[in-house]
Amino acid sequence: MLDHPTFWQSRNIKGIHELYSERVVTLDSLLEKAKTISRFTILLTHYTPTYITLKGEIRRDYAQMGSQRVEELLKHHSPKLAIHGHAHSGLKKAQLNKVRIYNVALPLNRQIAIIKNS
């Protein structure tokens, strides 16, 4: 989900703003549930769940590439890892509190990303 839908999404997906808001609520619920059934939670998204790994992208495009609302969920639920793509010129990895964040976008990494447990 994005903080601001792309121009194409706004034109072609009816109710996209509401859809993204609903997805944040759903993701919050799923992350809460995951904590009750597992000690190791991974958040896997297409869009970046934080603006941190967008460094290197055009700043004015951040809201159409990622979500600060999801970043708040990362802070609250602290999954072990957050893995995403989409940020082709961003950072390969970052950390938000205890959450390790990996940008596995192929154009950025130029190869299949391998994440090693460390």
Description:
The chain is built from four helices and four strands; from the N terminus they run H-H-E-H-E-E-E-H. Strands 1-2-4-3 form a four-stranded mixed beta sheet, with no helix packed on it. Helix 2 runs parallel beside helix 3.
Summarize the entry for a quick read.
With 118 residues, the protein is α/β, with parallel strands linked by helices.
Question: Secondary-structure blueprint of this entry?
Answer:
Elements: H1 7-12, H2 16-37, E1 42-45, H3 68-77, E2 81-84, E3 93-96, E4 99-103, H4 106-109
Parallel strand pairs: 1-2, 2-4
Antiparallel strand pairs: 3-4
Helix pairs in contact: 2-3
The CATH architecture can be named as 4-Layer Sandwich
Q: What is the CATH superfamily classification? A: Metallo-dependent phosphatases
Counting structural domains, the number is 1
Number of beta-strand segments: 4
Strand content: 5-15%
CATH topology: Purple Acid Phosphatase, chain A, domain 2
> Strands across the major sheet, in which order?
1-2-4-3
Mean pLDDT: 95
End-to-end Cα distance: 29 Å
Which percent bin holds the helix content? Answer: 25-40%
Largest sheet entry:
4 strands, mixed
Number of helices: 4
Query: For the record, what CATH class applies?
Result: Alpha Beta
Element-level helix/strand string: HHEHEEEH
Low-confidence stretches: none
Alpha-beta content class = alpha/beta
Shape: globular
